[in-house]
Each structure stands twice: as C-alpha cells, then as structure tokens.
From TrEMBL:
Nucleotide-binding as UniProt keyword: yes
Enzyme class at the top of the EC tree: ligase
Function: ATP-dependent carboxylate-amine ligase which exhibits weak glutamate--cysteine ligase activity.
Keywords on record: ATP-binding, Ligase, Nucleotide-binding
Reaction catalysis annotation: L-cysteine + L-glutamate + ATP = gamma-L-glutamyl-L-cysteine + ADP + phosphate + H(+)
Protein's name according to its UniProt entry: Putative glutamate--cysteine ligase 2
Record Gene3D superfamilies: 3.30.590.20
Entry's EC annotation: 6.3.2.2
Length: 257
C-alpha cells in the first residue's frame, strides 16, 4: 500500500496536484456519473436515478476469509453491534456537520446499513433474492449492507469504513475486522441487538465519529464513542493476542484518537 500510494503521489505531483484520501471528494464533480458501456452500470443508473448520478464516495473495504458460508453468516450476525464503531473510527469525510458524509450519502440507497440477522446461508440468499424481486437491488451481486458475504470470494466483506487517510488507518481497519471474524468463530452468539438501535448507532457514528456520542448496542443509550471503541478492543483482545497484533493495534488506535 505504501508503494502504491507513493507511485500515485509522484504521478499527481507531475501534473501539479496533490492527493487526499477521504470518503468523499472535497469538491464534487460538475458532471453526473454516466456510463454507457457497461449494461449493469446502466441498469444501476436507471434504477436509482438521481441518488446515484452524483454519488461520489470511497470506502476502505476489508475481505476476511471464512471456511464456508455457514461460518460467514455466523460472522455477519456477530459483527452487527460493532460495525458502527468501525465507522466512527474511520470517519474521514467531514461535510455538512457530519464526520462521515459518505455514510449519509450511502444511506439513501435501499437496505443500507447494518445487515439483518440471518438464520443461515439459505436465509441470506432468500433475503437477497427477495430484494431483487422487489426491485430494490438490480441483481444478486448487489447489496448496500455495511458487511456482507462476498458474491465472488470466500470472504466476509466489511464495507463500513471511509477511505483510509493513511496506510496505518487501513491496517487498523484490517486488523480489527479480522479480529472480529476470528472472535465470532470462537465465542457463543452475542446477545441480540435491535435493528432500530443499530440504525441509530450508524447515524451517530456518521454524525460525530469518535468526537461525540455513540449508541450502545445493548444498553440502548448514548455513550461516548471512545467508550465503545474501548469495548471493541476488549472484545477482540484474545484474537489480537493470538496473532501478535495487540500492541500494534493499540498503537494505531492511539494515533487515531
């Protein structure tokens, strides 16, 4: 990642500009997004109209391998309460009073946010198929959840974070996402979390990042977002210790907060 960013920075410098990695552009483009070559993109533009025409956002996606789809669904159910904290930690698109304006833009798409609880892979597939039939998704490869089973790879795909400002920020998201997956494979099911509380937590994370209140998924009340981050770190400490990454993650968190 460092090498790739250095190459981009050099190319940008040659044309007299600099690079800034963030969830949304500092200045939006003047023209709407239009694609005439790709039939699927054309379908997306037709389906979502103005919501997608001026949608410009970049996220830091993390793929974590899982042995099978049953495990993947179990992971999705487990990570639901922690996704808003990953968002708050990554918030990198300040605009209109929000820490993550990217998430506000993404919330305009149907089904955006924390995924629902699934009984298993068949239930997951049926849910996606139902949304395609209802017309809110263009095909089974699409969804707007902040975490999902990858339609192409044997992974759980975390899509919650804003684009990482630095390589260290990307490494932190990757380490925490992987630790959450490993924790989900070792512990019993987490206590259930209400869908509306998850939605409130995503909104709070996008509004304040780590600089204000978050929503506690089980106490169902406002708490400092940094307190939720401390709970997340405690939750995944055994997984981080097992990989020798605990000190690294704590150092990266200290840099972020």
């Amino acid at each position: 990642m460092r090498q790739a960013r250095a190459m981009l920075a050099k190319a940008a410098e040659e044309v007299g500009v600099g690079l800034l990695s963030r969830g949304t552009p500092v200045k939006p483009s003047l023209q709407p997004i239009v694609s005439h070559d790709n039939p699927r993109f054309r379908h997306v533009l037709d389906a979502y109209a103005g919501v997608v025409e001026h949608y410009e956002a970049c996220g830091c996606h993390v793929h974590v391998g899982v042995p099978d789809r049953e495990t993947g669904v179990r992971v999705l159910n487990h990570v639901r309460p922690w996704l808003p904290t990953l968002l708050a930690l990554s918030a990198n698109s300040p605009d209109n009073g929000y820490a993550s304006w990217r998430m506000v833009q993404q919330s305009r798409f149907p089904g955006s946010g924390v995924p629902p609880v699934f009984a298993g892979p068949a239930d997951y597939d049926a849910h996606v198929a139902r949304m395609v039939t209802c017309g809110t998704l263009v095909d089974r490869a699409q969804s707007f959840w902040l975490a999902r089973l990858s339609p192409k790879l044997p992974t759980v795909e975390f899509r919650v974070a804003d684009a990482a400002e630095t390589v260290d920020d990307a490494v932190l998201q990757a380490a925490l996402s992987r630790a959450l997956v490993h924790t989900a494979c070792l512990v019993d099911e987490s206590p259930p979390v209400r869908d509306d509380v998850c939605a409130a937590a995503v909104w709070a994370a996008s509004r304040y990042g780590l600089d204000g209140a978050g929503v506690h998924p089980w106490r169902e009340c406002r708490v400092p977002a940094t307190a939720l981050l401390e709970e997340l770190l405690k939750h995944v400490t055994p997984a981080l210790e097992a990989r020798g990454e605990l000190v690294l993650v704590h150092d990266l968190v200290d840099q972020r907060v």
